[in-house]
Amino acid sequence: MQHFTNDDAGYLAWVAANPAGHVLNANRDPDPSHFRLHRADCRYVQGTPGNGVRWTHLYPKVCGTRPELEAWVRDEVTDGQIHGCSNCRT
User: Is residue 64 one of the residues assigned to a domain?
Assistant: First the structure.
């Protein structure tokens, strides 16, 4: 599992190397109600960022397997909830 904050190059390299992996999109200050889980090949977490500028500045990414990410939220974030992406249907 890897965390990416202000590291778009590292994040995009991870996504390219782990197409079967998962990406957890989070707020900079983790909000228990805002964790969005995506497959690494989802259009919402690769290509051109939605804000047109950067991937990991406003919304840091935690990347790994789905079980790793679920365990991280359960163990590290009080009352954390993961919501699946409506595009990639995680």
Answer: yes
Tell me phi and psi for residue 83, to 5 degrees.
-115, 135
Distance in angstroms (rounded) separating the CA atoms of residues 88 and 45:
10
Instruction: Look up residue 86 and give its two tokens.
Output: 């409506």
Paired with 23 in beta bridges are 38, 63
* pLDDT single digits (tens) 72-84: 888 877 777 888 8
Number of domains in the chain: 1
Query: pTM for the full model?
Result: 0.85
Nearest to 59 by CA among 25, 21, 85, 24: 25
